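pasting for ref
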Amino acid sequence: MEADLIIMFMVVATTSAYFLWFYHLSSRLSGPKVFPLFGSLPVLFLNRSRIHDWIAGNLRSSSGGSGTYQTTTIAIPYFARKQGFYTVTCNPKNIEHILRTRFDNYPKGPTWQTAFHDLLGQGIFNSDGETWLIQRKTAALEFTTRTLRQAMARWVSRTIKTRLWQILEKASEERFPVDLQDLLLRLTFDNICGLTFGKDPETLSTELPENPFATAFDSATEATLQRLLYPGFLWRLKKLLGIGAEIRLRKSLQVVENYMTEALTARKLNPSDDLLSRFIKKRDVDGNIFPNDVLKRIALNFVLAGRDTSSVALSWFFWLVMNNPSVEFKIIDELKTVLKDTRGMDPNAWISDPLIFDEADRLVYLKAALAETLRLYPSVPEDFKYVINDDILPDGTRVPAGSTVTYSIYSVGRMKSVWGEDCLEFKPERWLSGTGDRFEPPKDGYKFVAFNAGPRTCLGKDLAYLQMKSVVSAVLLRYRLSLAPGHRVEQKMSLTLFMKHGLKVYLHPRDLTSA
């Protein structure tokens, strides 16, 4: 009896101590409501279908609605210990601190790297430190070459001319809707595979075929992302037992591995101007050639970065243009002005071939409209960093070692204190000089980090703009788009800002001779 009373007393005392500690802890946290044991998980779960807008709302209210603080804390389970703290910010000064000033203190971190290791290995987008730096320097040399840009222009032009136009023409003539997001995903996948491997998987064709590599790549990416949603021990156990998403991941990775092996063998036998051939010739800092496994992971990292981001940005761009006729008019007017100068007065000559990149460079308003799209709908809406050492952000927020910092790219574009009272408007003019003839990004480069910033700034930024401009002109010069009746445009909750139901549109032939 006495022993039972002692045990009961210890349980009550421990529970009381925990709740006192928890109350003290939660009273010092900003952000959504925190529950014992479960942290912020219940409210996060309830808002899972609108997670990015929910985060933006929390950040707006973090200082009573003034929008000047722009930092909050979300606590996840496991007794809300410090490794369960997610500091979320959209303050440009904090973002600069994370991405540039204290760059070395905010790496990808072990959670992210371990989850993505089976798919991406030690590739450039899943590595830190010296491993990342070697690949970064090597890739930077290649991405600044004119020959790579010319190669990208050739792949984009060929895909548009031989396949995209055929699919759109058939849909227009037969008056059936197309899922533009799916077509764009296929187009950018074919282009990035061509640029990376010199091998066109031809997923974009009139039959819209399934491609084993593309299907396996999608499956592997989705299964890998699921690892971030669960405690590490859980997905490791599923991997050990070979169940659930982990068995799908293993099978998909085998297909991806076989494809990569074939591509590498082909490029070693017949080098070309693709990225893989260029890396085969390179050597690391010790003068050694890159091993086969490293070369395959490097190439796969470029496919992951170059496929989804551009296609998702283009999907949101076309949707915004459909809802903003005045912007569409200005884009068409600029295209006609440039093409009259380069191809003459005949409208048939304007649509006979896709843009060459010298023409694309002159499209200032179109670039502004694309940047404005990425401000409102960044392809990667949230990004995450691991904290190595205790730190204090410029706005005074303390971040403990071992915790995670999320910078919300989606939320930055929705802050009045950052972009003004009209921050929710689609307004390309905000990116132009006073005379309207020059593209002028904001002086504070950390207000716009859709292409990342600091040492990890996207190397393919210019290639992305080139591809997007080419695709936009190829579509809008020929067609006016309208949303299929009843189609709902919603965000898909994933690391990339896909449209949940795609983008189903009708295509109406455009008359370029009209005023």
